[in-house]
Amino acid sequence: xxxxxxxxxxxxxxxxxxxxxxxxxxxxxxxxxxxxxxxxxxxxxxxxxxxxxxxxxxxxxxxxxxxxxxxxxxxxxxxxxxxxxxxxxxxxxxxxxxxxxxxxxxxxxxxxxxxxxxxxxxxxxxxxxxxxxxxx
Length: 136
Fold this sequence. Notes:
- By secondary structure, the protein is α/β, with parallel strands linked by helices.
- The chain has helices at about 20-25, 45-50, 70-80, 100-110, 130-135; strands at about 5-10, 35-40, 60-65, 85.
- Strands 3-2-1-4 form a 4-stranded parallel β-sheet, with helices on both faces.
- Helix 2 links the parallel strand 2 (about 35-40) and strand 3 (about 60-65).
């Protein structure tokens, strides 16, 4: 595989209920020149069972003892080969055009260093009110 333009960094811990949807949403992007770096931050819920279902050369997996999200992200960045870094959480879903639109915007706007997208919160607002208000 040629060097990817984008490295998608996806750390996770105990995310067996959501990781498959997150991975699938990245693998089904309209923009294809990326690598997906999955960082297992000491999961205890057997994510290997889910990850073993994927046979895609764009996927790299790192298994770490529980180290925290910042350490996990930095490990992913350290092995990334892409010119651009895209961040993804294990409970996120990326619309199919996410990488294409963000990549195109950055290429056309060379003075821009960071790009984000709209977030739709679909969690329990009562249980996570602070985060829901942040998304709002």
